[in-house]
Amino acid sequence: MRWKRAAIFGASGGIGEALATALAGGGTQVLAGSRSGAIPEGAGITSFAFDLTDEASIAAAAAQMRATPPDLVIVASGVLTLPDGTGPERSYRHLEAAAMAEILALNTIGPALIAKHILPLFQRDAPATFAALSARVGSIGDNRIGGWHSYRASKAALNMLLRNFAIEMARTHKQARIVGLHPGTVDTALSGPFQKNLPDGQLTSPAQSAQHLLDVLANLTPADSGGVFDWKGARIEP
Ligand SMILES: NC(=O)c1ccc[n+]([C@@H]2O[C@H](COP(=O)([O-])OP(=O)(O)OC[C@H]3O[C@@H](n4cnc5c(N)ncnc54)[C@H](OP(=O)(O)O)[C@@H]3O)[C@@H](O)[C@H]2O)c1
Fold first, then answer.
1. Which of 13, 136, 168, 175 is deepest in the core (most CB within 10 A)?
2. Is the CB of 190 within 6 Å of ligand 1?
C-alpha cells in the first residue's frame, strides 16, 4: 500500500525521523510532529508542534490535519529513561510514584490522546492506518526476565488501548488498521545506555528499522487491526 499523507508524532526521534525520511523519499506527503516543531522541512515534509503531556497541543495538531487527513499515522515518540536521568527499574524496590506516572503519561496516555483526536479524522470507507511504536517487552506472555517495570507496564497498557480502539473503530470503519509495532533494537538515544551486552547483529539502524516497519504496515489487512507486530511482521503475543 502506498500512502498519500502520513503524520508522524515524534519525528525528532531516531526512529521517527527515519520513518519521516523514508516516507517522504517514497513520495508520501509527511507531516512531521515534534515538541519544538523545529523538524527541518525537506522535500515533501511539513512540520508541526505537539507535546504528549499537553492535550490542547494534540487537538490543535489534529485540527490542522482535518481538511486533508492523513491515511497513515505513526506515534513514534516514547521514553525509557526520563529527562532527569531516572532509568528503568530493575526491582520493585526502586519504584517511585512520580517516575511511574511520568512514564505512563508519555508512553500510554499521550499516544491514547493522539488516537482520541486523530481517529475521528479517518474516513469510514477508505483504508487508514494508526500505528504506535510499542515494544516486545510490553508483552505479558513473552515476559521471562522481568525488570523495567514502568516501561513494560506502559507498553502493555498501550497495547491494550490499541486493541480497544481497534474493536471500537471496526464497528464503523471496516478498513481501519490500528496496531502496535516493535521496531527491533534500534541504535537511538533511547537504547544508547543499554547497548553494551547486546549479541552481535542485534542492533539495527533507524533507517533499516523504518524500512522494515513500513513494509509491515504496507502488508497489514483490517483483520490485523488490534495486534502488535514486530519488524519482521510476526505477531507478538499479548
Ligand atoms: N530504540 C529501540 O531499540 C526501541 C525498541 C523498542 C521500542 N522502541 C520504541 O520506539 C519509540 C521511539 O524510540 P526511539 O528509539 O526513536 O527514541 P528517541 O530517539 O529517544 O525518540 C523519542 C521521541 O519521543 C519524543 N518525546 C519524548 N517526550 C515527548 C513529549 N513530552 N512530547 C512529544 N514528544 C516527546 C522525543 O521528542 P524530543 O526530540 O522533543 O525529545 C523523540 O521524538 C519509543 O516508543 C520506544 O519505546 C524503541
1. 13
2. yes
The whole-number pLDDT of residue 2 equals 85
pLDDT digits (tens, 9 = 90+) for 145-169: 999 999 999 999 999 999 999 999 9
The C-alpha atoms of residue 126 and residue 177 are separated, in whole angstroms, by: 11
Extents of the domains making up the chain: 5-230
Edge-to-edge strands, sheet with 5-9: 45-49, 29-34, 5-9, 72-75, 128-133, 176-182, 228-230
Query: What is the position in ligand 1's atom list of the atom closest to the CA of 151?
Result: 47
- 158 CA from centroid of ligand 1 (Å): 14
- CATH topology classification for 5-230: Rossmann fold (3.40.50)
pTM: 0.98
pLDDT of residue 1: 62
Q: Is 186 in the pocket of ligand 1 (CB under 6 A)?
A: yes
| Mean per-residue pLDDT, 123-134 | 97
